Give the backbone structure.
Amino acid sequence: MKNLLSIEALTAQEITAIVELGADLRKNRAATPQVLTGQTWALIFNKSSTRTRVSFEVGIRELGGSVMFLSGADTQLGRGEPVKDTARVLGRMVHGAVIRTYAQADVEQFAEYSHLPTINALTDEEHPCQILADLQVMHERLGGWQGKKVCFLGDGDCNVARSWMWAAARLGFDLAIGAPKAFQPPAEFMEKLGTDKVVLEEDPAKAVAGADVVYTDVWVSMGKEEESAQRIEILKPYQINAGLMQHAAKDAIVMHCLPAYREKEITDEVLEQHADVIFHEAENRLHVQKAIICWMARGEG
Ligand code: CP
Ligand code: NVA
């Protein structure tokens, strides 16, 4: 069994296989393969969560496994026990781990020392499960991503934006990041990304122009709370509202990974107009994460 630590580490074929399997599992939830029978998985979360926690707890049970939720603060990790020691202990007891934390390096070190199948449930660098669920929405609602334009607005250097950029690089669709200079990814990241499919655009109207998917995320990611006032001020022009939506393609869909802060990154009006897609997106977390675990169990990761 392998790991799912980033979109960066996946190939186009792997992403497509996971998304298609997620769509199959959505159509036939009752026929979920029992790939985790007899297994116990640990969910280790150092940050808050609603969707990710619930979808993994439900999904692991539907796959035949048991699940244990460990809040980072309640374990010895919260008192400074090193990740590599925790990993070696859990590696002898449980069968898989889902981790939400700050440093990507911690998730990678956990996987290395535990030898457990390990899933990144959000770090400061990537949110791969979210973007796989989002791609499943594009597959189901738009017939795929080929020839489509996605526009991400807001903090263009956050975990969700970075995972979108890796997805565009791997799958070859057009992605515009609409963000002020201070919230665009640094040159070193763009160099590593190595694609002309991702465009950084300061003008929100130009970023949205002709987009099939208009996407946003919170302006204040977990861990950035002390920068709240400054972020809200600088990111104001990047709000998804009816005026900005005039620049998108006629049948554009709006997506949001949630939680949403109304009248900040998106107006209540636009969110409610597109609620059907946005909550479909949230639901897909369940289906695509079951697909990720099935794919890992097949040893294809
Ligand atoms: N989108 C997402 O990951 O939501 P949670 O923080 O509620 O898990
Ligand atoms: N960028 C956000 C995503 C929340 C699901 C954060 O890290 O808080």
Summary: The pocket of phosphoric acid mono(formamide)ester (ligand 1) is lined by residues 49-52, 122, 130, 257-258 (CB under 6 Å). The chain has two domains: 12-126+283-298, 131-281.
